[in-house]
Amino acid sequence: MAIDLGQINFGQIRRSEHLPARIAAQLAEEISQGRLKPGERLPTEHVLAKTLAVSRSVVREAIAQLRNEGLVETRQGVGAFVSEPSARPIRIKDGELSAPQSFRALFQLRVPLEIEAAGLAAVHHTADDLAKIDDALSHMTGAAKWTEQGIVADLAFHRAVAEATHNEYFALFIGFIAERISLAINAARSRAVLEEIVEVTIAEHVRLRDAIAGRNGVEAREAMRAHLHGAASRIDLSLEQF
């Protein structure tokens, strides 16, 4: 079923912007809002180009971007169709996590993933894995006043733990979430006494590191649980117990 262009809320496209990206963003928004429904066929390149007053090559590049993002699928000789939600990759738009409920939901997802990752890392880590964890911890300890360097080291620590599971999906998902949760660390810096945050945070990471090094899966899981709930409490985020 083809899409009625009259139902699409295309905004005016400014020539100063990268046209394909702008068109792709507008179509992605229509898909996100449900105005372009799964299974519907997009208008042809010719129709879109005429409607938007751009070249067909611009439209073609925009459609290619949507295809790369998993929002549409193209069928040779037929056209482009809105993909089913289950076939789409994880996407979190810029600014989306500024909503407290969205941020809390993502943090909730992080907790069980990282707790299990800590337990698996304790069992499966190699000497190289532990060296990466120790390197990140040393950079955290040496980050004066918990600067940007400390935040980067904190994220590197969690990525190293995820990689030590030797399960690529833990590393993939935790890496994705951790990057977006990093604003929690910035929030904590502004809402509490900085020296106290540094001292407590490092102590939590040291406990976790020692449990992993000792191949104690139970203690590693508990150390990660305590750390994540501590991090949540430092930004006034209440989580259900896991």
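The above is record 1. Record 2 follows with the same two-line structure.
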Amino acid sequence: MSHYKTTLADEAATQALGKCLAHALTPGMSIFLHGDLGAGKTALTRAMIHAAGHSGNVKSPTYTLAEPYQVMLKGQAVTIMHFDLYRMISADEFAEAGFREEFNDSNICVVEWPEKADGVLPEPDLNVFLRVAGDGREVELHALSAKGIACLASLKFAPNL
């Protein structure tokens, strides 16, 4: 499966999707989150990181651009790098900060506002598009690699139950 689309009725459904995604992640994955302000990108990421085992605060890295979180996935220590590129002025900032090195076989990189670093970021394994729809959200997941396809194939999510 390379495409998944559903409607999330509320923030609890967004959190449930994040939790299910956490269980489908593998080291080396990169996930790009697309959507307007308030579409739920940070809420989805926060739920994913907590479900992966991080018990502390998960803050939006709007000002720091990146926050690392150490978790255990399937018995393996993994770093989830959460990037928020909203305040980045140019793609060169991303390259100059050395962030591209974080995209490797060991880390999982989750990037909000990836369009701010077009031409510098590697291709994602999974693109997630979030749109406000009434009180809820529409979400589309597009797998762009074998890792992304495997993630969607193992995703066990029943929305809005």
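The chain is about 25% helix and 30% strand.
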